[in-house]
Design goal:
Number of helices: 6
Radius of gyration: 24 Å
Strand order of the largest sheet: 1-2-3-4
Oligomer: single chain
Largest sheet: 4 strands, antiparallel
Structural class: alpha+beta
Number of strands: 16
Order of helices and strands: HHEEEEHEEEEEEEEHHHEEEE
Distance between the termini: 37 Å
Helix content: 10-25%
Length: 347
C-alpha cells in the first residue's frame, strides 16, 4: 500500500514540531539503520562506535552493560533462546542514537551497529518516514528478540517499534542472519504490504517460523480509506494478520478485518458512494431503505474525509459539510454476524 503525497503531508503536519530531527546543538544524532529508517545523513557515527566498543569491553571484563558509560547509557535485551543481545545506546535509553548487536563466540564478545536494509529498500523506507521529521522511525526501540538456527546459520527475529517516540506503537519484524561474522538483514516488510498503524506483533511460544500482527487503519491506504478523517487516537478499523516463514523471509498467510460498528459505517459509505447497492444493503437494518441511506451517507465525489465522532458504543455523529457542525447521527445494531445501520437522524 503506497501513500499519496497529500496523505504524507497531512501526517507531517500532525506529527512534526515536537520531534524534529536532532542536530549537533541538541546532542548526538541518530545513526541510520533498518531500525531507524527515517534518519537522513550519517548521524553521529563516532559516538555510536565508541558506545559499541564500551559495551563490548564491559562484557569482556565481566562488567554490567546496564551501568552508565562515559558518554551514554544503554538498555539491553537478550535474545530468547540465545546469548545475543541488542542494546539501545545514547545519552538517554529512551532516545537511543543507535542499536548495538553483541554476541559471544570462541570466548570473545563481538559487536556491531544494527545493520541497514539493502540500498533500494533503505531509500524507499527513508522516503516514507523521513518527511515526518523523526516523528516515526528515529529513536526506535527493540521490543522482542528471538534466536534461531536457519539452514544457513544463526538467525535473529527482531521486533522493532518505529513509533517508540509517538503516541502509538508501530511495530515491525526484521529477520537477521549471521553471515561471515556479521549480522545482515535478511527480511523486513516493504511499504507495499505492511500496515504500521498501531501495529503490535505477537510471537508464538517458540520458534521463528511465524508471527501475528494486530494493526489499525491509521496509516493504511486501501479502497475504504479517506471516507473519514481518522485521527491517531480516534476510530479505526482493526486487522488481525498471520505471517509465516517462506524461504529467507515471511509472507502474509491471512488477514481478517475485525467486525465493528465503525468498520460497517466505512463500508456502507463506500458502497453507497460507488453505487454498489447490493453490498450496501448488507449493512442496512430491516427498517431502513437504500435511498434514505444513500441520501444521508453517499459521498459525491467519494473520499471526502468527513469528520466523525463516536457517541457511546454504537452511535456516530458526522460533520458532512466540514464546518464543525455534526449534522448527522447514525446508530448501528448487531444483527446476526454484522453491525448494521438501524437509525439515521439528520439535524
Amino acid at each position: 500500500m503506497r501513500f499519496p503525497i497529500w496523505f504524507l503531508g497531512t501526517l507531517l503536519l500532525l506529527q512534526a514540531c515536537a520531534l524534529a530531527q536532532p542536530t549537533a546543538a541538541t546532542g548526538p544524532a541518530p545513526v541510520p539503520s533498518a531500525a531507524q529508517p527515517a534518519v537522513e545523513g550519517p548521524g553521529s557515527q563516532s559516538y555510536a562506535r565508541r558506545g559499541l566498543e564500551a559495551l563490548r569491553n564491559r562484557l569482556l571484563h565481566g562488567g554490567s552493560i546496564d551501568e552508565p558509560l562515559t558518554e551514554g547509557v544503554s538498555r539491553c535485551l537478550q535474545a530468547e533462546g540465545g546469548e545475543q543481545m541488542i542494546c539501545a545506546y545514547g545519552p538517554s535509553p529512551d532516545q537511543p542514537v543507535t542499536l548495538v548487536l553483541l554476541w559471544p563466540d570462541d570466548g570473545d564478545w563481538h559487536g556491531q551497529l544494527y545493520p541497514q536494509a539493502r540500498d533500494g529498500i533503505a531509500a524507499e523506507r527513508r522516503d516514507l518516514f523521513a518527511p515526518r521529521g523523526c516523528a516515526f522511525g528515529c529513536f526506535s526501540q527493540v521490543r522482542k528478540v528471538r534466536s534461531g538456527q536457519g539452514k544457513d546459520g544463526p538467525e535473529l527475529l527482531v521486533v522493532v517499534d518505529l513509533g517508540a517516540q509517538a503516541e502509538s506503537p508501530m511495530e515491525e519484524v526484521h529477520l537477521l542472519r549471521l553471515v561471515n561474522g556479521a549480522w545482515e538483514i535478511t527480511w523486513l516488510p516493504g511499504s507495499g504490504d505492511w500496515n504500521w498503524g498501531h501495529a503490535k506483533v505477537a510471537l508464538p511460544d517458540s520458534g521463528i517460523t511465524d508471527f501475528r500482527v494486530r494493526s489499525s487503519s491509521w496509516w493504511r491506504e486501501d479502497r475504504f480509506s479517506r471516507y473519514f478523517a481518522e485521527q491517531e487516537s480516534g476510530e479505526h478499523r482493526w486487522f488481525a494478520e498471520r505471517w509465516v516463514r517462506k524461504a529467507s523471509g515471511f509472507m502474509l498467510r491471512n488477514q481478517v478485518e475485525e467486525p465493528s460498528p465503525y468498520s460497517s459505517l466505512v463500508r456502507l459509505v463506500h458502497f453507497l458512494s460507488t453505487a454498489d447497492d447490493d453490498r450496501a444493503r448488507e449493512f442496512l437494518g430491516p427498517d431502513l431503505g437504500l435511498e434514505e441511506a444513500r441520501e444521508a451517507l453517499a459521498q459525491d465525489p467519494p473520499r471526502q474525509g468527513w469528520a466523525m465522532r463516536r457517541i457511546g458504543e454504537l452511535t456516530f455523529e458526522i460533520d458532512r459539510k466540514g464546518n464543525g457542525e455534526y449534522d448527522l447521527s447514525v446508530r448501528f445494531s448487531r444483527v446476526e454476524d454484522k453491525y448494521k445501520l438501524t437509525e439515521i437522524v439528520a439535524r
